[in-house]
Hints:
Helix content is 3%, strand content 49%. The protein is mostly beta strands. The protein folds into 4 domains: 52-143, Sandwich (Immunoglobulin-like); 148-233, Immunoglobulins (Immunoglobulin-like, Sandwich); 238-317, Immunoglobulin-like; 323-407, Immunoglobulin-like (Sandwich). The strands form 10 sheets. It has a 5-stranded mixed β-sheet with strand order 2-11-10-6-7, with no helix packed on it. Strands 13-20-19-15-16 form a 5-stranded mixed β-sheet, with no helix packed on it. Strands 32-39-38-34-35 form a 5-stranded mixed β-sheet, with no helix packed on it. The chain is rod-shaped.
Amino acid sequence: MSYRNRTPRMAALLLSAALGAASLSLVPAAEAAPQVHVAPAHPKAGDTSATTITRVSATKGSPGQMIIIAGTNLAAEEADENFPELKTWKAKTVKFGDTVVAADRVTVLGFKGELILVTVPKHANGTVTLTVGDAAKGVKFTYNAPVTVDITLDLLEGGTVTTETGATGLTVEGTNFSKTTKVLVGGKPVKITSVATDGTKITFDVPAGLVGVQDVLVTDSGTVHIAGFVVYVPAQIAVTAASSGALVEANTNIELTGTNLDKVTSATYGGAKVTFKKTTDATKLTVTIPKGAALEDGKLTLTTKYGATATIEIDRAPAPTPTVTAVSTVTASTAGEITLTGTGLTGLKKVVIKNEANKLFAGSKFVVAADGKSAKVTFPALAAGTYTVSVTAVSATASTAFEFTVAAS
């Protein structure tokens, strides 16, 4: 068979048939796909595909501390080995100096590798360069000597604290304390008063206002150490005496004597709230017992803001008949003030003075002592001579007349 005068395609088909089982396929040059060579692309300046670090959450710390690194392309997208159609983000290699952070210590937080969470690896103290992947620039990171605390888990020395005042000068011992070291009591930062020059002791004050057992923690570079605990106790109050009992017929002001009475914040009598008045003297407190039915063994209970209490029994009984046993020196003059001494003057209502001619003079502006044993009374002018005075208080019966003399001026 002659192959002359055949088209190229026909010639190829005939040759293929002639070869039979031979595996051969020929494609005419005119119909072959063109071969194009593409030169590799080169990154341009400012290419967003570059790895960069823009920020780290801490530039100082200790091994085990967790920091966040922010930037671009800190992680690369890769296919899941079990489900190739799914894509995940894998952080690029993170190094602190020449120390590579283990992969399980790096977590991708943001989309497109914008944030990664890194656990600081062990390294000698000093400053190293923190890098991620092929980032052109790194960030300086300084390793601090780790803080240690002499953990006692016991009551700190001087750790019994008065709730109302707090305490000063408590100490914790350890190593590598510095100005960045903080102390917390009951979860609250407290005032650091001094740090030993060798970093082995830190002195601090504890605040007022906490109650009960409170933990003491030392924190540094994100690491928390337990130092022990302190115990807050409220200031204790006591009542040692009362000026009088309470009256059935009228409200009665009773002056109490004791300790820390300036700390009282509430008072009850027979289970009901009563009013009270403090003074600048912490040993004195005036309580007003309201009028009411007779009450034997009535309990007056005082309480502080932080739960300390003191109790005293104040009986409420019918008012006794008042008495006048003395009158301060009175000189014939214009109106003035005199002082009556006696008993049962609480609730004073009326004071009457009578001269020898049975002329009556009424007193006014009564100021009665809390114990009911004296009262200041304002009188009109009295001439020299002999007078009697009688008073009426809350009792229905007036006092017996008491005789006194007004001296010549």
